[in-house]
Amino acid sequence: MIEIQELNVIYNNDYQALANVSITLEEGNIIGVIGPNGAGKSTFMKALLGLVSCTGMITISHERVNSLRGKVAYVEQKSHVDYHFPITVKECVSLGTYKRVGLFRI
């Protein structure tokens, strides 16, 4: 279960990207986060993963999101892909574990 209570994200002390978002997502549910450019979809995902500073409370399986670092991987969408980049998506995602297991054990 993912529980979000009163989530707020403010950039540069003046731009409120998310305001008072509260939602509970039960295990097994599939959701879509949709909206126009600049609506806060990416900011919502980054807050959910603990990648941006926010206020409010976010828990995943009853654990605060900040305690889950190292257990969650995130690959941001980019409009330009370098097809000559010499690693697979799996290898790219696995790079997040190198601090725990060592670069050559990934």
Structure write-up:
The protein is an alpha+beta fold and 106 residues long. It has one domain: P-loop containing nucleotide triphosphate hydrolases (Rossmann fold). 17% of the residues lie in helices and 27% in strands. The chain has helices at residues 41-48, 89-94, 98-101; strands at residues 2-11, 15-25, 55-60, 63-64. A 4-stranded antiparallel β-sheet has the order 2-1-3-4, covered by helices on one side. β1 (2-11) and β2 form a beta hairpin. The longest helix is centred in the middle third of the chain and has 8 residues, at 41-48. The two termini are 29 Å apart.
Summarize this structure briefly.
It holds the Pfam family ABC_tran. The protein has 106 residues and is an alpha+beta fold.
Number of domains: 1
End-to-end Cα distance: 29 Å
Structural class: alpha+beta
Provide the gyration radius in Å.
16 Å
Query: What does the largest sheet look like?
Result: 4 strands, antiparallel
Order of helices and strands: EEHEEHH
Q: Which SSEs are present, and which pair or pack?
A:
Blueprint: E1 2-11, E2 15-25, H1 41-48, E3 55-60, E4 63-64, H2 89-94, H3 98-101
Antiparallel strand pairs: 1-2, 1-3, 3-4
